[in-house]
Each structure stands twice: as structure tokens, then as C-alpha cells.
Design a protein that fits this description.
The chain is α/β, with parallel strands linked by helices and 588 residues long. Helix content is 49%, strand content 14%. It folds into three domains: 121 residues, Phosphohistidine domain (Glucose Oxidase, domain 1, 3-Layer(bba) Sandwich), CATH 3.50.30; 112 residues, Enzyme I, Chain A, domain 2, CATH 1.10.274.10; 247 residues, TIM Barrel (Alpha-Beta Barrel), CATH 3.20.20. It binds phosphoenolpyruvate (PEP) and magnesium ion.
Amino acid sequence: MRRLTGIGVSPGIVVGRAVIMIQRAQVLRYQIPPGRMEHEISRLEQSRSRSRQQLADIRESLARRRGRKLASLFDAQFLMLDDPMVIPRAAEIIRNQRVNAEWAVQQVFHELSAVFDEVADPYLRERRGEIADLVGRLNMNLRQGLETPRDLLRELDESSVLIADELTPSLAAQVDWTKVRGFATDAGSRTYHTAILARSLEVPAVVGLHNASRSIEAGQLVVVDGSGNELIVDPSDEVLAGVARHADDRRPAVNVDAERRRPATTADGVRVRLDANIEFPDDLAAARYAGAEGIGLYRSEFLFTSAACDIADEDQQYEIYRGMLAGMAPGSVTIRTFDVDEDQLASYVANRDVSAWAAKEDRGSRQGLRGLRLSLSRPELFQVQLRALLRAAGHGALRIMFPFVSGVEQVRDARRLVTETAAELARRGESVPPVPIGVMIEVPAAAYTADLLAREVDFFTIGTNDLIQYCLAVDRADERVSRLYQPLHPAILRMIVMVRRAAARHRIPVSLCGEMASDPALLALLVGLGLRELSMTPGAIPIAKQVLAEAHSGELRAMARRILRMATVDEIERELFSALARLSHAGE
Ligand code: PEP
Ligand code: MG
């Protein structure tokens, strides 16, 4: 038995057989039952014959256009296809390790690369590139007919646990979580988007495990303990008995049914608005069920991961927004315009071939061209979304929110586009009701200029997930520095207060939708700091209501005042937890 310690991002404990996914290399490793061994080997053979045919075609066409000499460059790959170190070796790996063909081919690549790396002759070392090319081709042909990782995952047992180097939200969104019981990743931190998803899916998860995906064998029995921050490999009988006991008495911590109907108030009757953060239109049901008053953040960029929506298609987007607004009415729905970066847009463009959006100019490494900045640099994309949103506005209480804003100019430019789009719709005879326009405060520059931004917009939403990482210079997905990702850092608390005051002075509403709000202890502090609107993952809402119902707003304010005078995260944490312990005893 081996225990690996990480960061539990979604509570619960599950046991299952490990399925390994190396997302960076796009390969999945899983154990195949003995009866499927021959099927796996025949897939490998089919991939070899397809690859042989493709190489022959390429060689033929090159010879015709450029001459035999160039065509002979492919001879080496032909020879490799028949080399005992390649296909026969991959078949041996399938038999010995009972793994899938993709993984076996990848192993062959590692073995051959290691040999070539030791060769001094630069000419021979060059051949390593050809092996990579051939392996890529074999893997591509193995994937034929299997469209997505979801198709691969369909073949798995019911009780699988996914162990991955990283799990992007788009892949997480494709996984069939009725079969995959939990997941663990090498990368990640509490606010990593996938962790947010795990919590909404209620799948136990542990992240930040460094090299779990390399040190665990496919098929090994593992326990994901999201509450205990652990991944247990080859658990003892005692541990397994504990997991089974836990599964038996897994009761919700609060009486969800009673809680969800009650509006959120503190013990002394101060109303706090609780909204839901959602990623998919289907999450609306979960938000309503959890008792959300509205949607405080719809991350519309998740449409990029949906096969059902082409983001170039205004009508498809309109239908989705209309359905959400009608489904949540009379509650409001805050739709954040696409928060993607240039690479994400480029890969969407490449896969969908929406060539009109492909940047003509050099895409280079313009890191940070993301959110509203990217939308403003692609007005044709932005206007499709704005038209769809404004057309849907009549069907409910829409608020439009811009992400990743760092200056007043961007807001003015975006508002101008909204006005122009509304005028264009009016010319087409479509009436557009007034729609509140707000911004996310998630870049330190926006927090520092909140008083200036407040004059330009109708509401603020503080996005602490990004605000923390940019203010503290800590990449939220990098597990090496995730300890420094501290929501309770005095700088963060001061910024929140600064933004709240700017909003109050200009009489605009301010909400907070970062992961901080989903944590009941931090939520109590946020209310103490004066926030009255919070948006969180739907599953956190019933517990938030219960915590607030037990707290007195005056005591929360006094606690927040003490905390604002403290210099270190340790002191703040101690004060927060002891104050909350006193509050909960007082309620007994
Ligand atoms: C945030 O930055 O706090 C936020 C809610 O946005 P996202 O997590 O989607 O970046
Ligand atoms: Mg953000």
C-alpha cells in the first residue's frame, strides 16, 4: 500500500481500478481483460497496414512531384514498420502488461528514443524525429473510428478511477462520470477549472500529486480520498473496509431539502443573495435545485467544448441563451462573454475549421490576449455573441459581463460594440430591452481602478480565482507554487474591500464569484467584509445558507475588522477558525 498526498478539491471517497491518461501526449493507458488481447493486437496490425498504405501514397505523390530522391526520405519509416523493435515489440507489451495498443506504441517510442539518445552520430540521432513521426501516424490510425477520449472511456469498467497528468475542462466534460468514479491529477490546485467541475459533478478528486500518472500502473486498485487529500494505491483490506463503511453512511451534511427553499439570511435577518456558477446550460437544473436565486456566472466559453453548438452560429447561441434565461426566470442570469485565450480559440478554429476567425497576423506568444481583450481583437466573433445575447434578452433577466478587463478603454470599446449591435438589431426590427453591463474584477489593475470603472458599468463581479493568482504572482494550475495561492492574504482582503467600497460609492451592485465563496469559512469572512451577493458552485449553496443562518452579521463584521489588521495568513486563519468555532458554539 502506498499513500500519495495531494490537494483534495472535491470531497468524498471512492475506490476503483486506475485508468491512466497522459493528456499531453494524448494517450490513454488502461488495462484490457484477457479476452480482449487478440482484438487489441489486431487493432495494432490494422494500424500498421493503414500506415503502410498512407506512406506508400505519400512516397508516390512526392516522387511524381519532386523526384525519387526526396521520396526516399520515407524509406526509413517503411523499414521501421517491419522492424521487430516496433510492432512485434508493441504486441509483446500488450500481452505482458495487458494494456491498450496506444499505450504500447507509446512505450515503444520511449524505448527507441532512449536508444537513439545515446548514439553519438548526429545523423542517426536525427532518425529519432522519424520514429516520432511514425508513432504519431500509428496512434492516429489506432484512433480511427474512435472520435474522442469519451469513446475510449466507454470501453471501461464501471468502477474506474482516472489518473491523469492533467485534465482539461474540455476533456472532463466528455468523460462519462457514471463510469469514472473519481479522478486524480499530477497538476492542479483548488481553483483549477477542472477542480471546479469536479465539485459541480460531485466526483471525488485529488490534484497536485506531481507524478501519480507515471508511478501508477493501469489496472491497479486505488482509493481517491477527496476529503483526506490522498490517493491510496493498493489499499489494505482495512482501508477498503473503511471506504465501504463510508459509502454506507454517506449522508448529506445538511438537510438539503429544507435548506434549499429558504432565502439566505444571517441569524439577525441580513439578506445575502446566493447565486450559482455554472459551466453548462444543463447545470441550470442543479442550480435551481440547490436554491440559487439566479446564475451569478455562466462561463459561456464552455460552449467551445460542446459538440451541440458551433460558436460561429448566432442562432444556435441565441437558442442556448434564450433557454437559460427562460429556465431561470424570474431569477437573473449573468452571462460572461467568452473567456478564452488565443491558443484556445486557435485550437477551436483548427478543429472546427472556422477559418474566418483564424488570425491572419502572427499568433506568436501573445500571452494574456484573453477574455475581453481577445473579444475586442476579434469583433466578428464578439458581435456574433453580442447579437445572440441581445436577441435573447427579452426572454428573462439577462446581465452581460466582460471578463479579464484591465482598463476603462476596454470597457468603453465593448460598450460601444454593444450599443452598435443593439442599434443594428433595432434596424432589423428586433426590440432589445436595456441590459445591465458589468465587468469581472479579476486583474489587480481593475481592482485598483475600481472607482474609475464603477462610473462605466452597471455592476461588478469580483473574480478572486484570477485576482489571487495575478495579485500574488502564483499560477493557479502550477502545483509547485499552489501553497502560495492564498485567498486569505492581506493583499487580497484589502482589494476586496477596496472594490466593495468603490461599488458602494457609485451605487452599483457588487458580487463575488471566485471559489472563495464556495468555502463556508471564507464565505463568512466575505459577508463580514460587507459583501451581500455571492455566486458559487451549486452544491455549496445549501451549506452556505446554513452557515449564514447560524451567524450574526455584527459578529462577522467585528471578526473581519480584526482580520483586516492582521499581517500574516497564519494569524488570519487562526482568527477566522476560532471565531467561527465560537459562533457555532454560541448557536448550540
Ligand atoms: C475568477 O477568476 O474568479 C472566475 C470566477 O473566473 P474563472 O475561474 O472562470 O477564471
Ligand atoms: Mg477568471
